[in-house]
Amino acid sequence: EVQLVESGGGLVQPGGSLRLSCAASGFTFGSYDMSWVRQAPGKGPEWVSATNSGGGSTYYADSVKGRFTISRDNAKNTLYLQMNSLKPEDTAVYYCATQLVAGKLWGQGTQVTVSS
């Protein structure tokens, strides 16, 4: 089955850190660019970060630049998002996503809540 499964979300205090993971299966993970997208309550999806298929190029939204780091392990078919210095405005459901030949593929999401 072609799927993406996120994990690692949770409740964290402002200034804290979390590491999200996204396990891919059913397709050749190492051949595809990957992204993280988030959706806050009552808002539309917001692109957060992306990396190319080899992981050598990374891109970030201005809102997370310098705080978040995207990485991937193609041997483990896994995408990561290290989130540091978290702020309440980072609260959202975080999704990993990719564009396959057959269409867009998103995971089910993992909730990140930043609150004291």
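The above is record 1. Record 2 follows with the same two-line structure.
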Amino acid sequence: QVHLVESGGGLMQAGGSLRIACAASGSITRNNLMNWYRQAPGKQQRELVAGITSAGSTNYADSVKGRFTISRDNAKNTVFLQMNSLKPEDTAVYYCAVRRADGRSYWGQGTQVTVSS
């Protein structure tokens, strides 16, 4: 079992920056993929925002490229999402997810990010 706890969400004005974090504990395999998803108000589907492998390879949604940076601290099993130049359309609940080497995935409870115009 893996337990994920997100932190760092809040209210920010457009153009500002925010950093959110997700700490994982439990049965984490050395090789894993950590992702950030978000679910905007009124939308049923979660959008993949960014992902990072244990080796540090990253990928981003087109909507956040150049503004968001994902990073991780493998020693602490923690993944970060630095969000710059925030836009009102970035408003969402942000969820952390980890996929272990055995294919099992786990989700955090989410953290709210609200960007005012």
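The mean pLDDT is 96.
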